[in-house]
Design a protein that fits this description.
By secondary structure, the protein is an alpha/beta fold. It folds into two domains: 116 residues, Rossmann fold; 34 residues, no CATH class. The chain is built from seven helices and seven strands. The strands form two sheets. The chain has a four-stranded parallel beta sheet with strand order 2-1-3-4, sandwiched between helices. Strands 5-6-7 form a three-stranded antiparallel beta sheet, with no helix packed on it. Helix 4 crosses helix 7. The chain is globular and about 55 Å long. Bound molecules: zinc ion (ZN). The site of zinc ion has 8 residues, from loops. Zinc ion (ZN) binds next to loops.
């Protein structure tokens, strides 16, 4: 499942990328561009803008109106409505900054490119072939898993409300 996120949803876009989902996002995307990307590429449009949400619906596009400010709630809502799983798998992750799938680095590569403190402390490293950023399993991984755990507990709530909406 592929997404395109409006300019107000940068944080959600970064999280979806981290979870391995192809998500287009740019602070310069205007409404026409968002609609075009959703239509041409069959992406699910994520928006906070109610009028854009209605326009997309009117065109028969797949669109979700995001109202929460809490990242766990946002992820739970998207997961409940689309069925995507909220599991962090480093081998599937995309660069949070530019949406490019990350490449696992060999130990030799890591040793030649990264600071000694990092290679001494961590085992696995990834790099983005497009923007050149490096990633590794640092302390933020615990935060990621805590957020996902919280999100997974919330999915149920949105699944139930979606059923009652349909009735
Ligand atoms: Zn990148």
């Amino acid at each position: 499942m592929e997404f395109v996120a409006d300019t107000m949803l940068g944080n959600l876009a970064r999280w979806l990328r981290m979870l391995g989902h192809d998500t287009l996002y740019s602070r310069s995307f205007e409404d026409w561009r968002l609609l075009h990307l959703a239509e041409e590429e069959g992406r699910v449009l994520l928006t906070r803008d109610e009028s854009l949400f209605r326009r997309a619906r009117g065109k028969g596009l797949r669109v979700m109106l995001i109202t929460s400010d809490d990242i766990a709630e946002m992820l739970a809502y998207v997961a409940a409505k689309t069925g995507l799983s909220l599991v962090f798998d480093p081998s599937r992750t995309r660069c949070p900054r530019c949406n490019t799938p990350l490449t696992r680095m060999s130990k030799a590569e890591a040793l030649s490119l990264l600071r000694d403190e990092l290679t001494a402390k961590y085992e696995e490293f990834w790099r983005c072939s497009k923007c050149g950023r490096f990633y590794w399993q640092g302390n933020h991984w615990r935060t990621i898993n805590e957020t996902l755990e919280r999100a997974n507990k919330l999915i149920h709530r949105y699944s139930i409300s979606s059923r009652s909406e349909d009735e």
